[in-house]
Every structure is written in C-alpha cells, then in structure tokens.
Amino acid sequence: MTDKERKRIANRKYYEKNKDRLAEKWKHDEDRKEYLKEYYKNNKDAILLRAREWNRRNKEARKLIVVREKRSKLKPFWEVKPTK
Questions:
Q1: Chain-centroid distance, C-alpha 84
Q2: Which of 18, 38, 40, 45 has its CA 20 to 30 A from that of 29?
Q3: Within 13 Å, how many C-alpha atoms sit on residue 76's CB side?
Q4: How many CB atoms lie within 10 A of CB 55?
Q5: Contact at 8 Å (CB) between 40 and 47?
Q6: Within 13 A of 79's CA, how many CA atoms are on the CB side?
C-alpha cells in the first residue's frame, strides 16, 4: 500500500468520524465558499462532462432520480386548490 492510499484511507476515516462537525464548520466558512465558487467556475466543463458520463453509465439510477424529483414536485390532491 502506497503512502497516497494510506493518506486517503486516513482522511476518509477522519471525515466519517467528524462529518457533522465539519459540515457545520464549513457551512459558515466564507473563504471556503469563495474558493468553491471559483473552483466550479473554472472547472465547469470538466464537471459537466463527468456528470454526463455518469448519467450515460448509470441510466437506471438517473431514471430513479428523475422520477423522485417529479414526485417531490407533485402536490397531493388535498393540497391542490381548486380553481373556480
């Protein structure tokens, strides 16, 4: 096992152990938000390409996600106000 793999495993364990605390910390970190905005702007094409490839490879999973989104947008009949 290489050092890189060991470090990756150690970081993953640390994150799993502390993810609630880290999420709360990162939510209010303005520097991190700015960094991520710049990162997504600079790497938009690569990110979209990766997403497109994932969607192509995982058609069934993508279909489930789309159906779930449609269901969440639908309102039950008792919440829909009838028009008069």
A1: 42
A2: 45
A3: 2
A4: 14
A5: yes
A6: 4
3 within some domain = no
Residues in the chain, how many? 84
> How far apart, in whole angstroms, are the C-alpha atoms of residue 17 and residue 11?
10
User: Which residues span the domain enclosing 70?
Assistant: 43-74
Look at residue 14 in the predicted model and tell me its pLDDT: 94
Consecutive 10-residue runs of the chain (84 residues): their mean pLDDT?
93 92 89 93 96 91 89 75 67
| pLDDT score for 72 | 84
Domain count, the chain: 1
Inside any domain, residue 63: yes
Distance CA(56)–CA(62), nearest Å, equals: 9
